[in-house]
Amino acid sequence: MDLYEYQGKELFRRFGIPVSEGRLATTPAEARVASEELGGQVVVKAQVLAGGRGKAGGIKLAGGPDEAEECAAAILGMDISGHVVRRLWIERASDITREYYLSLTFDRGEKKPLFMFTTEGGVDIEEVAASRPERLARLHVDPLEGYQPWHARRLVFDVGLEDPAEQKQVAVIAAQLYECFVACDAMLCEINPLIVTPEGEVRALDSKFTVDDNALFRHPDIADMRDLEAYPPEERAARAKDVTYVKLDGEVGVLGNGAGLVMSTLDVVGLAGGRAANFCDLGGGGGAQGVVDALEVITADPQVRSILLNVFGGITRCDEVARGILQAVSQMAIEHPIIVRLDGTNADEGRRLLAGAAPPNLHVEPTMLDAARRAVELVA
Ligand code: GDP
Ligand code: MN
């Protein structure tokens, strides 16, 4: 789960990492009030789950309340890499002498958190990594050993940061960032830029924060930070119903049980000359209600033109799935053609149930390939 800058900064603040004081605003009027409260120059920042906001014009300096209101009006509604700006973070503007970069990511290959630090921050870090890799210090932390002061010493010496006062502050922030990363079950905590002010103070001016979805149950406060409006309606419905859903860009809605079967279904749809619009995984033991929920999610996607249901009964019983299909068809008035392939546990009984009810848009096919061909054919 990705967090907005202001949410990430709130977590940074809890762990002692210095950030600027700010306010959230969703209207130009609120931006004005925020600017009045903060006083002086402020920076109006688009809150979207995408980087490069500065380059896209989503970050503007404002001299006072009038300008803050104007900037807010200009930035709200802006499209940044496909994300529409609906929230603004207004913070007290900082004077910047230098821009550094500090991050912690989880390196799955090494199974360890990885620190990265460079004095060439502010810009695209990929660019630094590609053209001047020697300027980017990389250092793994052994999770059993945890953070040790020598980690920060290595990072600052590796990039040649010589000012003792800055070294000291970076070391404190690195320790706090590690604590924050572990305590929040983060996958990424990135500060770009980590600024140095003319007074020599080191502070986080941006935040990119990703929390491991599988650990959210331990962090109800972070889970609550999720902005449901940032997701398309069918993804929202999928979350609410606990359906595993992935959006793709073709026309065939795909429903299967088990990730492996779903993946091969996508391949077979491709083989038949079509493309999947999305897929839902019913998982093992999917009962009738699971099928109804998944069909609701799939049909909420406007790109879907036909639905392919591919079930191999193991723990899942095909008669249960058939009941779910019939229940969904009777409740929901689904107009799309639904192509069903059932095999495995209780498949005969499932097929019999479907054949007996036989809604006109329901097609039962004997094999996966036949079903995929029919689904692609009926898209047209
Ligand atoms: P990003 O473009 O999405 O990474 O957004 P950032 O929060 O990193 O801001 C982009 C750039 O805007 C920074 O690298 C700074 O140069 C500039 N910026 C952001 N906040 C301030 C501020 O308070 N004062 C000044 N002078 N510049 C700022
Ligand atoms: Mn940034």
- Roughly how many Å is the radius of gyration? 26 Å
Q: Helix amount, in percent?
A: 25-40%
Largest sheet: 7 strands, antiparallel
* Count of extended strands: 19
Bound molecules: guanosine-5'-diphosphate, manganese (II) ion
Structural class: alpha+beta
Mass-distribution shape: elongated
Q: Cα distance, first to last residue?
A: 37 Å
Percent of sequence in beta strands: 25-35%
Uncertain runs? none
**Tally of individual helices:** 13
Q: Indicate the mean pLDDT.
A: 94
Outline:
This protein is about 40% helix and about 25% strand. The protein has about 375 residues and is of the alpha+beta class. The mean pLDDT is about 95.
Descriptive notes:
The chain starts with a strand and ends with a helix. It is elongated, with a radius of gyration of 26 Å. The strands form four sheets. Strands 1, 8, 9, 10, 11, 12 and 13 form a seven-stranded antiparallel sheet that branches. It has a six-stranded mixed sheet with strand order 14-16-15-17-18-19, with helices on both faces. The chain has 13 helices and 19 strands. Strand 8 and strand 9 form a beta hairpin. The protein is α+β, with helices and mostly antiparallel strands and 380 residues long. Helix 5 packs across helix 6, helix 9 packs across helix 13 and helix 11 runs parallel beside helix 12. The longest helix is centred in the middle third of the chain and has 20 residues. The site of manganese (II) ion has 2 residues, from loops.
